[in-house]
Amino acid sequence: MAVKMGPILGFRGQRQSEWRISVLLVTDVQTNVPTLTFLPTGGAVAAATATLLKAMPEGNPNSQAWRWDFSVKQTDVEQQVSYEVLGVRAEFWVPAKDSMPNSAYASCNGFSSAKVKNSCKVPNRLWEDLAAKHAERHYHLLMMGGDQVYADSIWDVIPELRKWAGLPVAQAVKRSFTADMARKVDQFYGALYIENWSQKEAATVLARIPTLMMWDDHDIFDGWGSYSQDLQRCEVHQGIFKAAREYFALYQLQLAKGEAHPLGIQPSTSFAYGCIIEPARDHSIAILALDMRDDRDDSQVIAPANWKAIYDWLDALPDDRPRHLLILSSIPVVHPDFSIIEQTLSIFPGQQELEDDLRDHWNSPAHKQERLRFIHRLLALSQTRQYRVTLLSGDVHVGAVGVITSNRDSAGDRSAQVISQLTSSGIVHPAPPGVMLFFLESVMDKKFADDRDITSEMTPFPGTRTHFIGTRNWLALEPDESGRIWANWHVENVTQPYTKVIHPIGFKLLG
Questions:
Q1: First CA to last CA across the chain, in angstroms?
Q2: SS3 label, residue 147
């Protein structure tokens, strides 16, 4: 039995000091069920039971996707766990039960066009850098905030879709999603993941750090959810979306068709999920991944019923210790406001693609009120529940820091009125052209009035005189014993990381 992709580690949460892991592997089609064994430090060899997630004799010739689930008991010290499946051996690290995990964050693992790809001499250099840092620091979690694959070439490599995309919109929206289209789209997404995730540099990391992934538009195709209603709802777009959704669930969330994620937020109909990691002393950390694509259309980012499920989950978080809440928001909540440009473009013909990109932002006029409600809820959580809220974002192909500040008098602790956003993008996709970086840095406003006494602001990037890092990067989140999280951006061709420290609310230095 030949391995076609993997192993890829997934994180399934922590409960009663058990670190729960899944392993995904794609093989060719055979009748034998592969065996996975694992060995914690100081423990005995154990075997995990295989689950067949999907057999793909047609959609991706001679392929089967398998998953194994097992847990490792946390001990007083960090421990290495070795595992083996079909002759492939790898290892990962489990944090000590009284410590917060070291984490990494990355986004934008691919290229939006062949031209962009050809301009990049060493595509996977930062995957190599992450692997080297992991060997030193032992990252226990890898959060991936969107665009884990780039599916934009679907319009070029499938002739039927290329022909369909060339039709006038009024004609295109009336066309059927044919059986031949469906077969080729299924093959496309299956092959896309295998081609991208089997590259040595990325595969090395994905086999050694348990992942928490959430999709964004390029995992479907560029701008999904920001097109006009007639395009969004037409049969061809919906057929493509259904296939992209199925492969996202299969490969990024490691789920069988129709299976619920063990960390899924109920009763949400989206893929939003969350987990709480509770060390035995002093501090805790919660992670919330927002699904900002499943419900998305030109009038909403997340459906009201799914927002309610998310807020109910947040309201149920424990109150008993200083704590951090990390929220994966694939689109930055704090970013320059392009809404005036968007409105201007709407009156000119031939600007559909750029207009769709601008409409994708939180500050698009269609989404501003939804964004403001979200900000109000996060500030209330910070002020009343004493959670240090930090947004993690990508998408925009720059590194940046944003801050949301409330100057209202309701909070006794002024530090509880501040929310930071850490943007890291991309680990593979290059930065925007120099003219766009100049425009962001020199022309666009950096501070915005969101509501009465609530502002958001792009702050100078740590250790620089600029607001944006126009170079590929990934982010490390490394906690210390005082409950602080040291956010370190590792930037291509820069020796030392750029650092910002996130303090818990009510922070007091241990000593």
A1: 56
A2: coil
26 shares its domain with 106: no
User: Kindly report the CA angle at 424 between 435 and 304, in degrees rounded to 5?
Assistant: 105
- Residues 407, 456, single domain; the answer is yes
Joined together, the tokens standing for residue 211 give 């992942």
Count up the domains in the chain and report the number: 2
Which structural domain, as residue segments, surrounds residue 437? 98-502
Handedness of CA 248, 288, 275, 503 (dihedral sign): positive
446 close to 466: Cβ distance less than 8 angstroms? no
CATH number at residue 51: 2.60.40.10
Omega of the bond leading into 7 within 30 degrees of 0 (cis)? yes
Tens digits of residue pLDDT in 97-145:
989 999 999 999 999 999 999 999 999 999 999 999 999 999 999 999 9
Residue 511 lies in a domain: no
Distance CA 15, CA 77 (A): 17
Q: What is the pLDDT of residues 452-480, one digit of tens each?
A: 999 999 999 999 999 999 999 999 999 99
Q: Which residue has the tokens 């896309």?
A: 192
**CA distances (Å), 450 to each of 369, 373, 420, in order?**
10, 10, 15
* pLDDT above 70 coverage of the chain, percent: 92
Give the H/E segment covering residue 132.
Answer: helix 125-137
Q: Residue 480 in contact with residue 468, Cβ under 8 Å?
A: no
Nearest to 405 by CA among 421, 418, 423, 389: 418
Dihedral, CA atoms, 305, 306, 312, 318, nearest 10 degrees?
180
465: number of Cβ within 10 Å = 7
The tokens for 475 are 């982010």
